[in-house]
Amino acid sequence: MTVKRNARPVVKVGAYVRFRGVKWQVVALSGQDIRLVGPDGGGETVLAGYLFADPGFAVIGADAPQPVPQWGLFETAPAAARERALAWQRHVREVECGLPGGPGSEGVVREQYDPGRHTLAERELAKAEELTALGFGRVSRTTVQRMRLDYRKQGLWGLLDHRTTRASSPTGRTDERVVAAVREALRRRRGRSKGTINGLFPLITQILEKRHGPGIVPAPSQATLYRLVTSLARPGELPSGPVRQIPASFDGRAFTPATALRPGEQVQVDTTRLDVLALFDDGTLARPELTIAIDVATRAILAAALCPSATKAVDAALLLAEMAVPHPAHPAWPDILRMDQALAPPHRRLATIDERLAGAAARPVVLPETIVVDRGKVFVSRAFTAACESLGISVQPAPPHAPTAKGIVERAFGSINAMWCQYLPGYTGSDVTRRGRDTEHEACYSVAQLQDLLDEWLVHYHHRPHEGLRHPMMPGKALSPNQMWAALLAVAGYVPVPLTGGDYLELLPLRWQAITASGIRIHHRTYDHDLLAPYRGQASPHQSRNGKWEIHYNPHDVRQIWVRLPDGELTEIPWIHRDHVHQPFNDHTWQHIRSLALHGNHRDAEQHEADLADALDQLMRRVHSGHATRTEQGLIARTATVPVPATRPSEHPTDASTSRHADDDAQHGEDDSIDDLDELPDDDSLPTPQASGFGLYDAHEEAAKW
Questions:
Q1: How confident is the model at residue 144 (pLDDT cuts 50, 70, 90)?
Q2: Is 518 helix (H, G, I), strand (E, B) or coil?
Q3: Is the pLDDT of residue 441 over 90?
């Protein structure tokens, strides 16, 4: 049986059309011309395109055309819903014309769907019974009729289950208590520096526990929280990465990612400003400077030091020593942060090699072979390169204008900001567009306190799986830096470095001075002790230095120096007025005091030095009482906050600033050579942090003092 095809309406001779709101009859067709006759007998010839473009055009008496399938919209539905709609299309066609493929298609009309034998209602009832038997569920005749009418109006789109295409709620079926907590967390973060979305999760958990009690409201998955924060945040509240611009000097060269096969094979060192405001001793707020060293093979941050201001060469030199010795665990830390708990199997073997690992923090200990640095003056200074040479470390400067050469350490700074800095009060964000309004009022930690928090966080960091670390036998599992270090120890081994307090003194900058009858004179400061009695006026064994003695000094605390006596040991020699000035000071502060006392009669050198010491003490008292000028506050801010013990010096080269009384210095045996001129560029940089653990104090002894 052949069924007439239900085609779209056709304009042909004899058909009636509606045009300009009037009923016309088509009487002739000639190419694109259509001859129309109106109800009053008048005729008109129009172009076909003009006729069809009329808004009210229609072929009178013809069936409404079936809409064109909306395939683009149809493809947005789930695959299962699309398959079900296509199945319904075949059944609806069979009900209407008897053939699943539609009018004019091939096939045999089944008896129960023959339009010549059964009415439309009977065919709909038969289809409902058939679909129920096929597993479509309980399908009624009304359902078949509704689907048929929807197909005529909307085509294939009308046959879809629109529950699958309905726009979802921004919060979905999430517990309203969780939604309220997310809204509250976003409200609290408004006006503050923007961190990452992940940084909101602890705050959301705290709000839920505070409002409903611990464990009452189940914590949603991380994916759910990401979706909620993204959908509920206002425009501009979501964190966005800083704008990255390609440097003008970037030439588009390809680069090879840094790789290393054993711990210490390559260590990358760099310095950056921390995105947190710290409270300096003079009451000012500023961003401290962070210097870190990261091992490429294990991604372990071997050392990290915070300086209140610019890092100097000696800071970087002492950082080298921190990499090679075990880090002592803080007595108040949980046991899991100790190496004997976190790395029990390798620790038992290593403790027999290096006793310092007993009670050490769970952080890798690595002696670097090669250190990759940029071309900053700190890392190319004589103090740093000499320290590397003494430890047998090769220094590899990165190519100029090639930031990718130290990509791992640059990425580590981003991790520190995302996983640590953004949780601290005083977080500034990575740029001014992400900075909060009240950041200055939130800052409350000093540099020393930030260093303590950083030291503890670094131990947690080394327990965290790192996506860049994969074991050759388990490539699908990300390892933590501690696990990678333990795995590579079996290949590379462990080399204990016997660094002592004397080794740190050796890393301090040095100069050559004469020992006069009054002691050792440096910039109108006299250093003397009874131990110098046998050597006053005597030449040193070093004839190449014109008989001058080797002197080491801490540039951030010049209240004492260390002289190498004939026994080969460095001996501490105090400033004769050290007991009068109880706070550390650097040479820059001393030169400021001297500049205020340039005029006048200074025939009595001893009395002049005593007056300078008294003026220095008065300056420090004014600063701590809040009565100092801004210049004086800045001077004291450049000074280390605590004296560094002889076993643990702190920072870098001093201000070897020249004096207007050079002749007087020469009379007292002061060195006028250019041996330490390479450290002059560091003079105007801002020093330096607290003593923060270079692995030389006893944790139990420290605990007894608290």
A1: very high
A2: coil
A3: no
Q: Where are the alpha helices (DSSP H) in 597-661?
A: 605-625, 630-637
Report CA dihedral (12, 18, 19, 25) to the nearest 10 degrees. 40
Amino acid (1-letter code) at residue 356: R
Q: Which stretches does DSSP call E strand in 494-559? A: 510-513, 520-522, 525-527, 549-553
267-492: CATH topology is Nucleotidyltransferase; domain 5 (3.30.420)
Give the distance, in angstroms, between the CA of residue 460 and the centroid of all CA atoms in the same chain: 16
Domain ranges of the chain: 71-159, 176-232, 267-492, 503-704
Question: 412 CB contacts (<8 Å, ≥6 apart)?
Answer: 292, 294, 299, 301
- What DSSP state is assigned to residue 637? H
Residue 375's alpha-carbon distances to 269, 402, 403, 406, in angstroms, are 11, 11, 11, 12
CA distances for 500 relative to 299, 360, 510, 568, angstroms: 26, 16, 18, 15
Instruction: Say if CB 238 and CB 230 are below 8 A apart.
Output: yes
- Express each pLDDT in 446-486 by its tens digit: 888 888 899 899 999 998 888 888 877 778 888 899 888 88
pLDDT in tens, 209-228: 999 988 888 888 888 888 88
Full-model pTM = 0.56
Q: How confident is the model at residue 556 (pLDDT cuts 50, 70, 90)?
A: confident
Q: In the structure, what pLDDT confidence band is assigned to residue 8 with cuts at 50, 70 and 90?
A: low
**How many angstroms separate the CA atoms of 357 and 347, rounded?**
8
Q: At what angle do helices 176-189 and 222-232 cross, to 10 degrees?
A: 60
Burial class (CB in 10 A: 0-12, 13-18, 19+), 501: middle
CB 308 within 8 A of CB 687: yes
Q: How far apart are CA 303 and CA 385, in angstroms?
A: 18
Give the tens place of pLDDT for each residue, 246-255.
454 445 555 5
- CB within 8 Å of 663: residues ≥ 6 apart: none
